[in-house]
Amino acid sequence: MPFSIVLGDITQQAVDAIVNAANPTLLGGGGVDGCIHRAAGPELLAECRTLGGCRTGEAKLTKGYRLPANYVIHTVGPIWQGGGQGERQLLESCYRNALELAIGHNLESVAFPLISAGVYGYPKGEALKIAVSTIGGVLERFDLDVRLVLYRKEDFVPDRALTEGIERYLQRKEDFACAAYSVRMPRAAFCVPPDLNEIEKRIGKSFSEYLLAKIDEKGLSDVECYRRANVDRKLFSKIRSNPDYHPQKNTALAFAVALRLNYGETQELLRTAGYTLSDSSKSDLIVGYFIERGEFDIYRINEALFGFDQKLLGQA
């Protein structure tokens, strides 16, 4: 999956490069910076001494030494001063320059911490938005696996308005289901299980065939589609080359988002793979919340799913 949000220790990530939220001297410090220097060993500090520091928003690359990662990309985030000193632009530059450095060195996987959200005081919610949007913008143009690594779930501060909107939506769905049950409404009235044999007869296509036909119908290239879906290029190649490929549900849903299908079209795509959107699945309801509103930003959807402890879209 090209972009994911995970909980863990960034020094333990087995990727081509991890990103260090460094200070301008590049000589180590507290927080993530100190952890990375301790895990990499004194050789990292010795190499950093040769680099002449780093300006805010820029990035420099060193070897990873004793880390599982082959390289460390050091970038200096802005100190929060209220938001009026160009902090947003500088923070965006951190992510963009780090990714461009990785791409320029032909790296395939990168793990980031949430830059500037520790002792530099950047509000965690705003820092998260900037990280997700900036990384997403780069992944529209390049194939790269990127992880945003959070040490604790408490470091994840979601968009409050979005979270409250989803919670109200989930509550309405729950209230409707309870009301339907209380009056003994037939289940078919609000959740119709798919007749897969009928779907196959009517559509006459496998998931792979149906997906490829929809890509053509929407006027998208393969690259545009799998990047919008947050799906790895190699996985998409398997789907294209194998008419009988059976995806995981979250992969199928990711393509529905990429194709900007409405609710009914999403159900039809899912049914070719033997799935359906269900009102008993919190994950399905959250995705449905976005689809019903015509919002198809895969990274924003995954941000919401992570906040509700659900599996992200695009995972194989």
From TrEMBL:
Q: Name one Pfam family in it.
A: Macro
InterPro entries associated with the record:
Macro_dom (IPR002589), Macro_dom-like (IPR043472)
Gene3D superfamilies, alphabetically? Leucine Aminopeptidase, subunit E, domain 1 (3.40.220.10)
Q: Where do the Macro domain residues begin and end?
A: 1-170
The record's listing under PANTHER family reads:
GANGLIOSIDE INDUCED DIFFERENTIATION ASSOCIATED PROTEIN 2-RELATED, MACRO DOMAIN-CONTAINING PROTEIN
- What is the name listed in the Swiss-Prot or TrEMBL entry for this protein? O-acetyl-ADP-ribose deacetylase
User: What is the organism of origin for this protein?
Assistant: Candidatus Stercoripulliclostridium merdipullorum
